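Appendix B.2, paired examples.
Example (i):
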Amino acid sequence: MDTGGKPPSPPLSGGKMPSARSHASGKVITVRVCPRSQKPRVVEDAGGCYKVYVSAAPEKGKANKQVVKILARHLGLRKTSLEIIRGQSSREKLIKIHE
C-alpha cells in the first residue's frame, strides 16, 4: 500500500495524543461532531480529522460539553485541557489542546 512517502497514522486508541498541528494559538485538532448518535466514540477519518459521535442533541451547548468530555477521556487529558476555539454552533470544530 502506497502512503505517499508518509508513515501511516496510528489509530486513536488507548489514550494516545492525536497528531495536533501548530496554530497561532497553540496545538489544535479538527473535529467533526455527529450528534444524536447511539454510541459515543471517537474515530479518525482518512483525512486526519477526528469524528466525535455524541448522544446529546445540539442544543444549549449539550453536545459541545459531551464532545469535550469524550475527547478528553479518549486522549487521557482533563476536560479543562481542551477548548473549542471555533465552531461552537457548527458540526466542524477547531479544538485547542492546552498542555
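Example (ii):
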Amino acid sequence: MSKGKARRQELANKFPEMDQRFQELKSEINGPHERLGDTAKEQKSAKYPT
C-alpha cells in the first residue's frame, strides 16, 4: 500500500463520518451529470430542420 493510501486509511479509521461524506461526494462527482445544453450539432439541426 502506498504512503498516501495508508494515510487515507488511517484517517478513515479515525474519522469515519468524514470518510463517509468523502465517499458520497466522490460518487456524486463520478456519477452521471445533467446535460447543460444542446451540442453544437443539435443546435444547428434545430435551427435548420430538414
